[in-house]
User: What shape does this take?
Amino acid sequence: MKQNNKCSYICAMAFIPCIKATVENLPGDGEIKLVGEYTWIPISEAEFKETRKNGNTVEQELEAVITDTGKEEIDEITQLFSDYGILILFYTNREMKIVGTQEFPVLVETSVSGRPQAITLSFKRESPEPAKIGTSF
Assistant: This one.
């Protein structure tokens, strides 16, 4: 499968709080190196969009859903996303995109709803750079 294929979708996601991440990033470069203690996020679906804005910013938007939840899982996810961090998105075309850096981290909002309960993870932000291709983990 070709990378950057419009038919690929997010199949897995992980998160690293900034305090546990080491990032090697050169502004303007399309790749980023990331090492850290990450946590897998058990998503059932996710969508990530980027739109180039006038000027030098990119609008980034994420919505992801976790459906296999109980009170302990809800508490753990809510605690994990209470701090700024870096999001790792894994696509079906084997591409790995990194959203955020230590200088411009992501703050993911959580909301719980429905029966059975599901957690929605979301953010909408402007970033000086688009998501980058991860080259090291």
User: Anything to note?
Assistant: Helices lie at 71-80. The mean pLDDT is 89. The chain has one helix and eleven strands.
